[in-house]
Design goal:
Blueprint (H helix, E strand, L loop, with lengths): L1 H11 L10 E5 L3 H12 L4 E5 L5 H10 L2 H4 L5 E4 L10 E4 L15 H18 L4 E4 L4 H12 L6 E3 L2 H16 L6 E6 L7 E9 L2 E2 H6 L5 H12 L1 H9 L6 H15 L4 E10 L5 E12 L2 E5 L6 H24 L6
Parallel strand pairs: 1-2, 1-4, 2-3, 4-5, 5-6
Antiparallel strand pairs: 7-8, 8-9, 10-11, 11-12
Length: about 350
């Protein structure tokens, strides 16, 4: 009797006594989407909805991951859906919908196909999750997040692109392997567009606080070898595409987006590089470009403007020009984006 009364008490007080969990909508249920769902569950960031227009895939993946929860020890709810109404009221939306890269393709080759996807996704978010924090992963990243913000009409500080966290993570890994030190002791910053023109900054990247430029002088690495590592960082995604042959990276991109989502949901005020909307910072207006930001409960709460020397500024401007070209191409396909 006592247990029955306890059960009844819980049921009677649902919604009034217990705080509702955060809701995380994953728009796109491919390899990144499934990995996102698993990571969000393991971290217990909230209840998770997997969405995809391919009926059956989000439901199947959601059920599969949910069945791992008793073993993994998390209580998050996982559901799958093929109707945008399922994302209603989401606190965070992570967008991976679109076509992934295949061998021989650049991120830019995906522009026309994925732009149409962003238009559909933007309409769905605008209708059902207008207060959410949006993290876009779809490539070509900088142009897609720019278009997604315009299609959705959400505040610019609440729509960001996942790029810099991933690129910096790749840079950190390659440096840790070169120096044979822990990745935890390495910080790295990669600016600019998420593509061949990205700008890994050696001067602002450190090992235990020691700048890479100083480590060159200390004999830890030659300037030429460091440049090889920087180039491998630029080619990081293409290297994986070439090895997989049938798809693109998904573990590291998912982990990077989850770090951003956690910073927002827990108001952690993390300093993270991401594709953020610039309104004059770095001399750039109305574009999404990778820069250091502070992410907390307000979304992108601050854009950090770091001092760039002549060479760094030239590389950054070249990257911005590449992103601008993609945005112009988007306008050519969807003239409404010019507004």
């Amino acid at each position: 009797m006592a247990f029955a009364a306890f059960q009844a008490s819980i049921m009677d007080h649902k919604g009034s006594t217990f705080m509702a969990r955060n809701k995380i909508a994953l728009i796109g249920s491919g390899m990144i989407g499934g990995t996102l769902a698993h990571l969000a569950g393991l971290k217990e960031l909230g209840d998770i909805v997997l969405f995809d227009i391919a009926d059956g895939i989000p439901q199947g993946k959601g059920l599969d991951i949910a069945q791992s929860s008793p073993v993994e020890g998390f209580d998050a709810s996982l559901t799958g859906a093929s109707d945008y109404s399922a994302i209603e009221g989401a606190d965070v939306c992570i967008v991976t919908a679109g076509v992934p890269r295949k061998p021989g393709m650049s991120r830019d080759d995906l522009l026309g196909i994925n732009l149409k996807v962003m238009e559909q996704v933007g309409a769905g978010i605008k209708k059902y999750a207008p207060n959410a924090f949006i993290i876009c992963i779809t490539n070509p990243l900088d142009a897609m997040v720019w278009a997604l913000q315009k299609f959705s009409g959400l505040p610019k500080n609440k729509v960001v692109g996942m790029a810099g966290v991933l690129d910096s993570s790749r840079f950190r890994l390659f440096l840790s392997q070169e120096f044979n030190v822990s990745v935890q002791d390495i910080t790295a910053f990669v600016l600019g567009g998420h593509g061949d023109t990205m700008v890994p900054l050696a001067r602002y990247s450190t090992v235990a606080g020691i700048p890479l430029t100083d480590l060159v002088q200390m004999g830890w690495v030659t300037k030429d070898r460091l440049e090889e590592i920087i180039q491998r960082t630029r080619d990081g995604g293409a290297e994986i595409v070439g090895l997989l042959k049938t798809g693109s990276a998904y573990y590291a991109p998912a982990a990077s987006a989850i770090e951003m989502a956690e910073a927002y949901l827990k108001d952690k005020k993390r300093v993270l590089p991401c594709a953020a909307h610039l309104s004059g910072q770095y001399g750039v207006k109305d574009m999404y470009v990778g820069v250091p930001t502070v992410i907390g409960a307000g979304g992108v709460e601050r854009i950090i403007e770091i001092d760039l020397n002549k060479g760094e500024k030239e590389a950054f401007d070249k990257s911005v020009a590449a992103v601008a070209g993609l945005c112009e191409a988007c306008i050519g396909i969807a003239p409404s984006l010019k507004q």
